[in-house]
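Need tokens for this chain, all 301 residues.
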Amino acid sequence: MNREANRDSFSGYHPFINFGYFAVIIAFSMLFMHPVFQAIALFSAIAYSIMLKRKKAITFNVLYMLPLLLGMAALNPLFNHAGVTILFYLKNGNPITLESILYGLASACMFVTVIVWFSCYNAVMTSDKFIYLFGRILPALSLIFSMALRLVPRYMHQIKIISNAQRSIGRDVTQGSLLTRVRNGLTILSIMTTWALENAIETADSMKARGYGLPGRTSFSLYRFDRRDKAVLAIMLVLIAAILYGWAIGENTMRYFPSMKAAEMTAVTLAVYVAYFGLCLLPVITNAVEELKWKAIESRT
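Here are the structure tokens for all 301 residues:
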């Protein structure tokens, strides 16, 4: 067994576990605007993305997500002037308030966190997992959605193939004069469009020939809901119940306007923080536990 071929143990769980986890964690990331919850979610999302994609995730987070976070946080105080703690005034007379700055930072953090979680979702929830979950319930919609999720990476891969082929005969967008480059670019776009249309027709014909979506159709699947999935599901339900209880009593909320106010720090607050931290880091913890088990097995051999 090649350990390097499957670095992420969490993606090896049942598709219901994977999809349910991301559905819950993305919803919580959008709902909870408390700074502690936002920091936990952002840290966990970045940690898991790095564990999944290594250097690509670091590049993506530093070159794209960090500027997006800082840009959104800086723009909000320029348009939102609510709040009672005025720091200074702009030349046009509009105030810059502490509340608007912190709310802009929280909103930007939430937006970036959701994007990073979705990048992890795309890496874990493959099209076959999605079709396995929803193929019988919504066959047409699940097929379209699974195709849409892999649209960009698949098309990017294909356009690289077409560009390399055109470059070998001197017709790439980097070769020739400006007019020639434009003409070459249009040729590559035309080839790509033709390939996309043919691929869509072939996919539709293939799924139709297999009887996809017909009543009574059976399908083979390797996914089984075993003891390991039940254990993780039980842990997830306990953590989610604790977080929802904290939400019900106001531990997860934060008021920014007109003045900032949060729940007082108590033992229940700390417990909710720990539960949320455990839920957000569940994939990372799972991978760490599996790595320790794997090293223990290797040490015996």
